[in-house]
Design a protein that fits this description.
The chain contains 28 helices and six strands. The protein has helices at residues 5-25, 30-41, 52-73, 76-81, 83-107, 112-123, 127-136, 143-169, 179-198, 200-209, 213-233, 238-248, 255-279, 283-288, 290-313, 320-330, 335-346, 352-379, 382-388, 409-420, 432-440, 454-459, 475-488, 501-509, 519-532, 537-560, 565-580, 584-598; strands spanning 402-405, 426-429, 446-448, 467-470, 493-498, 513-516.
């Protein structure tokens, strides 16, 4: 298909729109849909795309963005805590799987150098597929999900020296890295870490003051792609650079807003990445050697599954079900394998036929993994499944169950009351100056962002929130957020700040509990005025309570009539007359008491 970019984009979007809902309907997942669409579009079938390498190179930005978002979920202290699973379990996985698969490659007739490259290349698993599957199943925060991420992170680190060593093992004239390249790599990493730690917050603070969402989006993309480019300049993984940038911003007030800005791009480009992987699967090679390719896929999945299961049990400390799911997620080959085998072919370690076979094996293992994971989930014993669900008891201080949207004078009082009780909460406010001021005085739970956006609520953990407090100043923004919460989180309770009676009616209609922002304070002042005029405090409190009950009852009556202007006006006039006589009986009793006392 010799078409321009517009036609190509339409083809990809059409394939995604048709394939993903169809595969989801049969419970097969989005990844398998993208891979299948890629096979059909690629040069080996319909040939609508004849050069998948260019598409693959462009779509790898999706993997970069995925790693940035994952970095936002971590922080430097949490990453330090994860050093044991990253380096111990991850290191053992690459070493053991590389040796086992390399030994089998030698038995198949490869020399030791080629077998070593093949074994280590196949030991690497797909970061994009593995993390996407865990995200789809909402298992990234489980024990096996965290261990899978630690292993994938080590694999990304291990791929770099492997790529650097291929020229040394091959017959090429290159002799590896010069010391100047090592110095440049260290300098660029230091620049990213220091710049990210001390400059990025000031950058986003200045951009947030412009109050232009498109500029903030552009800045987020600039940080992700710029950090990836720096790591590429250092000869390292682009994804590693984006991940480091995410980690450095994980504790900033912009974390949730950044995630919400990047998510849409990440999802689309990851889908394109999976399509590009599918385009690289040579169907003709598979049809020519079906038994050989199928045996290769089976051996790859079996060897890695057994070793990952053993590592998940010890030293990973997972239960039986968690170890099985870990093995099912990471037994596949990875996208780095395509790069490793391509470099090995250029270094004349692999011939063209072996390269094509290995590429087909890795691609098919990616396609088979969603099915294997689905099968593993269904076949695991119920006892093990019930044990795995115990992790759902999330501590309140780790995952707050109260979200305050808007941190002005109204939201701050609620937050201070919650804090005094030791109740954890998360607050989101679109005013950057308010966020900065609140953080300066010690409120670390507040983040900058627009709480009326669903993507931002999801990234802030809204699925775990039990109570939403909508303290936003604007009426339309308040109603927009309440609609959003009631639609996507119907089980949660919503307390919303109402500016006036009409606003309160609309909030109640949407299923929120409306709290008029000045009603309670005005009622308290009115009570104190009565006391100052000579009324007994107990009597003043009783009358304030009765007035509040009457007014709340009137509010509900008026809400039912809000669409009938004439009826509403008449009800309001009737209420005024009723108000004039609300305490008339009390006044008559008081006069009788006074007269009897005088007599």
């Amino acid at each position: 298909m010799d078409s321009g970019g517009l036609e190509l984009a339409l083809v990809f979007l059409l394939a995604a729109v048709l394939a993903v809902p169809l595969f989801k309907r049969f419970g097969l997942g989005a990844i398998l849909a993208y891979l299948t669409a890629g096979v059909l579009l690629g040069p080996h079938e319909l040939a609508l795309v004849r050069d998948p390498d260019k598409v693959l190179a462009a779509s790898e930005i999706g993997v970069v963005m995925l790693l940035f978002v994952i970095g936002l979920e971590l922080s430097l202290p949490r990453l330090k805590v994860m050093r044991k699973p990253i380096f111990l379990v991850g290191g053992l996985q690459v070493l053991l799987c590389g040796l086992a698969l390399g030994g089998l490659a030698m038995l198949a007739g490869l020399g030791w150098k080629a077998a070593l490259v093949v074994g280590l290349g196949l030991a690497l698993s797909s970061t994009a597929v593995g993390l996407q599957l865990l995200a789809e199943r909402k298992e990234l925060a489980t024990e096996h999900g965290r261990l899978a991420f630690a292993i994938l992170l080590f694999q990304d680190l291990a791929a770099i020296p492997l790529l650097a060593a291929i020229p040394l093992l091959g017959k090429a004239k290159s002799v590896g890295l010069e010391w100047t390249e090592v110095v440049r790599a260290v300098a660029l990493i230091a620049a990213l870490v220091i710049g990210g730690r001390y400059l990025l917050r000031h950058l986003f603070r200045a951009i947030a003051r412009t109050d232009l969402p498109e500029v903030f989006t552009g800045a987020a993309l600039l940080v992700v792609l710029g950090s990836a480019w720096l790591m590429q300049m250092a000869g390292l993984s682009a994804g590693l650079g984006a991940f480091l940038a995410g980690v450095l911003l994980a504790e900033s007030e912009y974390r949730h807003e950044l995630e919400a800005q990047i998510r849409p791009f990440e999802g689309l480009l990851l889908g394109l990445f999976f399509m590009a992987v599918g385009m690289g699967i040579d169907v003709q090679r598979i049809m020519a050697e079906p038994l050989l390719i199928a045996s290769g896929v089976a051996v790859l999945l079996a060897v890695k599954s057994l070793l990952l299961f053993a590592l998940g049990l010890r030293p990973g400390r997972l239960d039986g079900r968690g170890a099985c799911l870990l093995a099912a997620v990471l037994a596949l080959g990875g996208e780095f394998a395509f790069v490793v085998f391509g470099e090995a072919a250029r270094a004349r370690l692999l011939d063209a036929a072996t390269h094509d076979r290995l590429t087909a094996i890795v691609g098919l293992s990616m396609a088979a993994t969603p099915l294997l994971l689905m099968l593993a989930s269904r076949l695991l014993p119920d006892k093990l499944a019930s044990e795995a669900r115990e992790y759902d008891a999330i501590p309140q201080d780790r995952h707050p169950q109260v979200l305050i949207a808007g941190f002005g004078r109204f939201g701050q009082i609620i937050a201070r009351l919650l804090r005094a009780q030791g109740i954890a909460f998360i607050a989101i406010d679109p005013d950057i100056e308010q966020v900065n001021l609140s953080r300066q005085i010690g409120t670390d739970q507040i983040y900058y962002g627009d709480p009326t956006r669903l993507a931002l609520l999801r990234s802030a953990g809204a699925a775990r929130i039990r109570i939403f407090v909508v303290a936003i100043n604007g009426v339309e923004a308040s109603l927009r957020m309440v609609r959003l919460v009631r639609k996507h989180y119907p089980e949660a309770r919503v307390f919303a700040r109402a500016r006036d009676r009409r606003h309160a009616w609309q909030l109640v209609d949407l299923g929120a509990q409306a709290l008029r922002e000045t009603f309670c304070s005005s009622l308290e002042i009115g009570r104190e005025v009565l006391v100052a005029l000579g009324m007994d405090r107990e009597q003043a409190e009783d009358r304030a309570r009765r007035f509040r009950e009457w007014d709340e009852s009137l509010l509900e009556q008026q809400r039912l009539l809000q669409d009938d202007e004439d009826a509403l006006l008449q009800a309001t006039r009737d209420a005024r007359r009723e108000l004039d006589g609300l305490f008339e009986a009390d006044a008559g009793v008081a006069r009788d008491d006074a007269a009897s006392g005088a007599a």
